[in-house]
Design brief:
Number of helices: 5
Mean pLDDT: 90
Distance between the termini: 26 Å
Low-confidence stretches: 160-173
Number of strands: 6
Oligomer: single chain
Strand content: 15-25%
Largest sheet: 6 strands, mixed
Order of helices and strands: EEHHEEHEHEH
Structural class: alpha/beta
Shape: globular
Radius of gyration: 14 Å
Length: about 170
Amino acid sequence: MPEITFVRGDATTPQGRGPKIIAHVCNDIGGWGRGFVLALSRRWPEPERAYRAWHRDRAHNDFGLGAVQLVPVGPRTWVANMVGQRGTRTGGKGVPVRYEALDTALTGLADRALGLRASVHMPRIGCGLAGGTWSRVEPLVTGRLVARGIAVTVYDLGDPAGNRAGGPARVGG
């Protein structure tokens, strides 16, 4: 089976040829303003605008844990806003990431990526502000995307080998 490719770099400038989807984790309360989303917003205004509208109109759409919103940002590039985080703070109730919701979102992302014949690019999703561990997230990415033949590249701003054991990434997700 193919494996995830780990590279040092910025996930907002995905490498390689062909259609690309940049995937990241959003919260379920409409908050956008810390972590990886700041890098997205510096590059493109569309993902934030689409996410905020999606949340605002949630009574009339599929917004919620496990949902995926694909936002075009270029001729063959999309950003996948994946709702995989409950709230924004850690505390007595544990970390904000919801692995079950992330698993559901990755399944939906896989269907979209296959339909577009796109590769998927991401930071270590769910492991920054969401508080998750890569040792829990990596098997979900492998099982839902890589196992279906989708090329996945994970970007680290720092040394990729230094984060592989499951610690939080330097780039939020």
